Amino acid sequence: MPTRGSTRAYLAVGAAGSLWGTGFMFGKIALQELAVPHMILYRLSLAACGFVPVLLARGRRVEREDWPRILAAGALGVPVLFLVQFEGLARTTVSHAALMVGTAPILIGLAAARFASEPLTRRHWRCWSRRRWVPC
User: Whole-angstrom Cα distance, residue 37 to residue 119?
Assistant: First the structure.
């Protein structure tokens, strides 16, 4: 029997998956009116407007030695990823983009086996295909 906490967790995961799944559709709509760099600027600016108050309300502090990494990731990591992703979306269909993103777990598994020597057995793939989020 699911507990109250696990039910909330499942609902949160379902909501996040639903919202994530609509990102390409809304991205394609936004690309009809905006250029890719402008769309990324607005998207990340709105995300920061929602994130910073939560960070401040929880009283979290960022240590001084963490700032260079945070600024590098903020300047290069996420914006570059989104620029490549949405520039690709501008050149293809929503269905094709979703199919490419849907293959990401398989590609990550293959890359982990090749470059990080992670085990990749039939048992691991079977557990992944059952959508189990714990090692089986």
Answer: 39
DSSP class of 93: -
Is 120 in contact with 112 (CB distance < 8 Å)? yes
Instruction: Output the pTM of the full model.
Output: 0.57
Residues 6+ apart with CB under 8 A from 109: 118, 120, 124, 125, 128
Torsion over CA of 78, 80, 82 and 88, rounded to 10 degrees?
-160
Place of tokens 């929880």: 58
CA distance linking residue 76 with residue 40, whole number of Å = 13
Give me Rg for the CA atoms of the chain.
Answer: 19
Contact between 83 and 36 (Cβ < 8 Å): yes
pLDDT in tens, the chain (136 residues): 666 667 888 888 888 877 777 888 888 888 899 898 888 888 888 988 998 888 889 887 888 999 999 888 888 888 888 888 888 888 888 888 878 777 777 777 788 888 888 877 777 666 655 554 445 5
